[in-house]
């Protein structure tokens, strides 16, 4: 995947990602061709291979963009504990339900899980899971537990038709982990 700063290449990545996500609303991921993505984004096919290696790469790029937005929100709001973090997580990703649902429908939730692990392992966002844990390996296990739990609850919440609010879902996380709200 292209990691440079060329504005034209970055813009192409954004267009390609938006096009793929849009196409995923219409048909299964494995039936979407690179040719189709490029025709719909009105870019030359060779552009795809200049900025991405695969369709999965495009989804990872899109997830990186989503997590960039999510982390900005985390920095703008007070996240004093797991309950706050869960509430913000469900609220943010609840607003991106159609994309997350597309991942689930296409058996690609592993990409969300991978990105949650990458982004939410950061000490700034997981320090509340590390209370009393000094061992780096145990910190990694604690973070994995939280990220997998949040991801699993998010998917089940969508599958249930979002029958409870983000606050109620975050409250459930607090009760499950025996933590308190701040």
Describe it for me?
The chain is built from ten helices and no strands. It is mostly helical and 182 residues long. The protein folds into two domains: 7-53, Arc Repressor Mutant, subunit A (Orthogonal Bundle), CATH 1.10.10; 78-177, no CATH class. The protein starts with 6 loop residues before the first helix and ends in a 5-residue tail after the last helix.
Which key phrases capture this entry?
182 residues; mainly alpha; Arc Repressor Mutant, subunit A; 2 domains; 71% helix
Number of domains: 2
Structural class: mainly alpha
How would you sum up the major sheet?
none
Helices, by number, come to 10
- Which series of helices and strands comes N to C? HHHHHHHHHH
Radius of gyration: 18 Å
Average predicted confidence as pLDDT:
88
- Report strand %: under 5%
Total strands: the figure is 0
Tell me the distance between the termini: 40 Å
Low-confidence stretches: none
Shape: globular
Helix content: over 70%
Fold blueprint:
Elements: H1 7-24, H2 34-41, H3 45-51, H4 55-76, H5 82-94, H6 97-105, H7 109-120, H8 123-126, H9 136-159, H10 166-177
Helix pairs in contact: 1-2, 1-3, 1-4, 4-7, 5-10, 7-9
Describe what is shown at a glance:
Helix content is 71%, strand content 0%.
């Amino acid at each position: 995947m292209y990691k440079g700063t060329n504005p034209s290449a970055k813009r192409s990545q954004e267009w390609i990602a938006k096009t793929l996500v849009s196409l995923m609303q219409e048909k299964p991921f494995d039936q979407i061709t690179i040719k189709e993505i490029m025709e719909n984004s009105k870019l030359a096919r060779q552009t795809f291979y200049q900025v991405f290696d695969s369709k999965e790469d495009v989804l990872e790029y899109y997830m990186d963009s989503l997590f960039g937005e999510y982390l900005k929100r985390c920095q703008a709001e007070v996240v004093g504990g797991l309950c706050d973090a869960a509430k913000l997580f469900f609220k943010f990703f609840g607003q991106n339900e159609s994309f997350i649902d597309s991942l689930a429908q296409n058996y690609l939730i592993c990409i969300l899980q991978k990105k949650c692990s990458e982004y939410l392992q950061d000490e700034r966002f997981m320090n509340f899971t590390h209370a009393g844990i000094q061992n780096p390996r145990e910190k990694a296990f604690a973070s994995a537990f939280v990220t997998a739990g949040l991801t699993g609850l998010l998917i089940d919440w969508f599958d249930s038709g979002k029958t409870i609010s983000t606050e109620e879902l975050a409250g459930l996380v607090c009760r499950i982990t025996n933590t308190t709200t701040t």
